[in-house]
Amino acid sequence: MPDFHKLEATLPVAPLQLVAMDSAAELAKAVDSHLVEFRHTMHEMPQNDPAFNGYKEDSYLAWPELDRFASGEAKARFRFSTRGKDCFILTDIMNYNCPYNMNGFTNYKSPDDHYQDLKRVIAIASRSAKRINVIMPFLYVGRQHRRTQRESLDAALMFKELSDMGVKNFITFDAHDPRISNSAPLTGFDNFMATYQFMKVLLNNINDLTVDKDHLIVISPDEGALDRAVYFANVLGADTGMFYKRRDYAHVVNGSNPIVAHEFLGSNIQGKDVIIVDDMISSGASMIDTSRQLKAMGAGRVFIACTFGLFTDGLDKFDDAYEKRDFDYIISTNLTYQHPDNVKRPYYLVADMSSFIATIIDFFNHDSSTSNILTPTSKIHEIVRRYNEGDHSIAELGQ
Q: Which domains does the chain have, with CATH numbers?
């Protein structure tokens, strides 16, 4: 649990306001509930001090209205005031379940639509808010983070655009490449990981893991996720390995070069439990192929941990792979929209990030250091130690 007493030595920047886009409605409600709990039960702040006006509220949520004309054009409007507020705008640009009518047809918002709605809300709030902070768990166009030949550099352009609009802090999770922040170096860019929440969920649901170098290995499914796997393995005291993707660079399918094969680099995994860590599952084909190869190489159980479970082709192929015992569990977060049917799967475990986001907001509102929540190495060591000693009440440790 973060040391909330550190906040008592600092003043809040301004009264807190959580502006929830329609794409992040459920997550925002959960975050708001934690903020209310923190400030009513964990913080002891001065009473009747003007600097803490509006500090303890029954809710910090504000809902912008996002209207669509029949032509598909849109506008945003507020029926609340942001004057003097420290605004945190929470959006989920990957939510594919936000419908609207256009020319008599029902359409669903794309990431581009969500991003335009975000800019509309920022344009309103920037007129009177004390400060604007954007929480965008999945980095919009984050996979288009570098330019090769004649291509758009979308991720860097997005961050520069939001900075120019007045955003002071940008908060994201498991960014594909955090170096896009170089496009606006004077704007805050914080990239958080879900490593602690992954381990907490895994240890809460699996009672017979042996967390050491001889029984557990952490695998990166490609070279891009290697740093993530190495960190994960080091804090667990486990072994590590990686796959690399052989691609067909002569062809482009669905915007990328198709994968020809996955090749493994690492030590013997015979009989070991395996955790595959990655930032996202898109269609899932490569993840299933990776887990299938690990099983064929003699791995014990295979746990797939990804920050963003997009499942763009649905879960049918995962259902089939689970029936064939190609993997054992998937752990994903609620940072992006999850179809209700997905979470009902027996192999699907959800890492709830709402308390973590509320903690981040709380510390940012006080302009307090987030170092103890940015690198939770000591917390991971603690839950692993307790687990290995037979204490499985990991949930009590909090976020």
A: 4-192 (3.40.50.2020), 195-352+370-397 (3.40.50.2020)
